[in-house]
Amino acid sequence: MPRHDPHSYADASQPVADFLVWRAQVDFAERTLSCEAILRFAEAVSAGPLDLDTRDLFILSVTDDHDQRLAYDLAPAEPILGARLRIHLTGGAREVRITYRTSPDATALQWLAAAQTSGGRQPFLYTQCQPIHARSIIPLQDTPRTRLRFEAELEVPAELTPLLAAESLGQEQRGERTVARFRMPQPISPYLFAFAVGDLIARDLSPRSRVWAEPEMIDAAAYEFADTERLLATGEQLFGPYDWERYDILVLPPAFPYGGMENPRLTFLTPSIIAGDRSLVSVVAHELAHSWTGNLVSNANAEHFWLNEGGATYAERRIVEAEWGPDIAALDWALGRRELTDAMQRLASAERWPITRLRTELQGIDPDEAYTVVPYEKGALLLRAIEEAVGRPAFDAFLRIYLNTFRFGVLTTEEFVTFLDRQLPADALSRVSISAWLYEPGLPASAPSPRSARLEAITSLSGQPPTDEQAQSWTAVEWQLYLESIPEPAPFELLAELDRRFGLMQSRNSDVLEKWLVLAMRSAYAPALPRVEDVLEHVGRMKYLRALYAALADYDLAHAERLFQRNGANYHPIARQVVRNELKLAADRT
Q: Contact 239/315 with Cβ under 8 angstroms?
C-alpha cells in the first residue's frame, strides 16, 4: 500500500478524487452537521478499494453514480489518523456519494454559545481544518497532495449568515432556513476547506476585498484592515498575479486559536489583532503571503510544513519591507529570531529536539503536537540565507519561476531542493550548507542576524527603562523587543516603573500585552496576576495561551491548573491540548 503521507490513509495506487460536491445542514442544538459528500473522479474507475480518511463520522450510506449501494468498511479509529473508510468500488463508477453525520466533538468544528460571541445574541460556528481535521467533517483523501475543486451548499438558521471560503453563488430562504451555495474553481488542499456561520455583516474595503465581522466589531475591523488592497497590490508586485479573484477577511470570535488562517478567498483572523492603530496588520501580510506560498504551492504533507510557513514568513517580511521600509522589516526579523531562540530552548530535551529540524519525520506523531514556531522562523531564515548568498535579484527571479512551475501543486522538501539546485548558481546550496538547515536540529551558526539602528538603540538600553521620548517613538515591535531584552527575573521596582509610566497593563496591543505579562509572571510580579487571569478568560489565541500558561505555571502551577479548569471549555480543542502540554511540562520541571 503506497502511502505518501504519514497522516493519511490515502493510497497512491487508488483512484484520486479531484472534485467534491458537499451539502450540509447545520444543527446548533445537536452540534452536528447532516451531510452528503460526492467525490468525483476524472475518469471511470476500475473495481477495487478506495481508502478515505474520517474522524468520528457516522456513515449512513455509500452509493455510486448509478445509485448502486457500495459495500464499505469503517476500521477501528487510531488516535492520530482517525478511522479508515474503505469503499469497495465497482467498475465504471465516476463518483461515490456518502451520506453521514458529524460528531458533536468533531475536531474541525468549534460551536460557540451566544455568550461566547461579541454580540451575545446568536451562536457561532467555524472550522479549523489544518493540519488534518478536514476528515472530521468530510470523508475524503485528507492530504495536501489531493487538491480538489468543489461546489458546496450550506443550510443554516435564517437569522444567521453562512460564509464559505469560496465564490458565493447566492442564497435563498426556505422557511426558517437559509440555503447558501458556493463553488471553488481553483483546486485546493483539504486543510484549506473552511466555513463559518454567525451573526455577521460585511464592509467593503476595495472592489476585490471586504471584511466580515459581528456588528459590534465591524467598524473597528474595517478601520484596522483598511489598507488590505494596498498590501495585496504589493504582494502581486513581489510574487506575481493573485490567482484567487477575491481577498476577503472574516474576524472570528476570541476563541479562534490562531492569529489567522489563510483559507483562500476568506482569511480567518483573530480579533486580538484589532489594536485600534493598525499596529498588528503584519498578521494580514502573513496570511496574504500564503496566497502564493501555501495556497498556490503547498507542502506535500506535514513533514514539509516549513515550505508553507517559512515561505509565508519570508514573504510577509518582504511585504513589510516594501510597505514600511528595511528598518521596520529588520525589527520583525529580530523579533522572530528571538522567538525562535526561545522555542529552541523550550524544545531542548532529547525527546523534542528532533522537531527543530525543518525537514521533520512525523510518523506516529500528531502534527498538532509538533506545531512550533520553528518552521516559520527557521524556514524564513533559510530563505533569507539563500537570498543573501545569491543576491536579491536572482532570488526574486527564482521565486517567480518556482511559484509558476508548481502553481496549484504540491512538493516535498527534496523536490524543492532539486529545483533550487537547477535554478540557482552551482555552489549556492553548498554556500548556505542547506543540508544542515534541513536535516540537523537547532539553528546553524551562520544564520542571518538582522541589523538596524533602531534595534541597536533597544539593545543599548541593557534592560534599563527608556526615556519618554524614546518610548513615544517606538512601534509595537520595538516594545516587544525591549520587553524581551529585560533580564529575568526583573526587579519589582523596574516593572512597577514601566507600568506606571507607560500603562503596559492596559495595552491595546495584544502582542505587547502578552510580552509584558509573561515578563511579569517570570519575575513573580503579583500586580499583573489579575490581568493574566482576565486574558486567559477572554482570549483563545494559542500563541498567547501557550506563553501565559507556561509563565504562570512556573510562578504558581496550582493556580494555572485552576484557571485552565475554569476556562478550558471555551478554548478550541487544539488550544486545549497545547495548554495541557505546557502544564505537563511545568509539572515535570517541579
A: yes
CA dihedral 281, 284, 286, 292 (to 10 degrees): -150
Q: Say if residue 336's pLDDT is above 60.
A: yes
pLDDT at 1: 54
Contact 101, 57 (CB under 8 A): yes
At 462, is the pLDDT very low, low, confident or very high (cuts 50, 70, 90)?
confident
CA angle 390–392–394, rounded 5-degree value: 60
In this prediction, residue 346 carries a pLDDT of: 85
Exposed, middle or buried by CB within 10 Å (0-12, 13-18, 19+), for 498? buried
Cell (9 digits) for 464: 534599563
85/88 Cα distance (integer angstroms): 10
pLDDT in the model for residue 451: 87
Which among 148, 118, 290, 125 has a CA at the least distance from the CA of 213?
A: 118
Catalytic residue among 224, 287, 514, 582: 287
Active site residue 236: no
Closest CA to 40 of 97, 100, 99, 91: 97
Catalytic residue among 191, 376, 544, 571: 376
Q: Are 4 and 301 in contact (CB under 8 A)?
A: yes
- Given a contact cutoff of 8 angstroms between Cβ atoms, the answer to whether 387 and 310 are in contact is no
Percent of the chain's residues with pLDDT above 70: 100
CA distance 129 to 36: 18
Residue 585 confidence (pLDDT): 86
203: exposed, middle or buried (Cβ count in 10 Å: 0-12, 13-18, 19+): middle
Q: What pLDDT is stored for residue 91 in this prediction?
A: 87
CA angle, 218 then 223 then 224, to 5°? 100
DSSP state of 90: P
Position 463 scores a pLDDT of 87
CB proximity list for 370: less than 8 A, separation 6 or greater? 302, 355, 360, 362
d(C-alpha 577, C-alpha 109), whole Å: 15
Quick check: is 287 catalytic?
A: yes
Q: Which amino acid is at 172?
A: E
pTM, 2 dp: 0.96
pLDDT digits over 515-546, tens only? 999 999 999 999 999 999 999 999 999 999 99
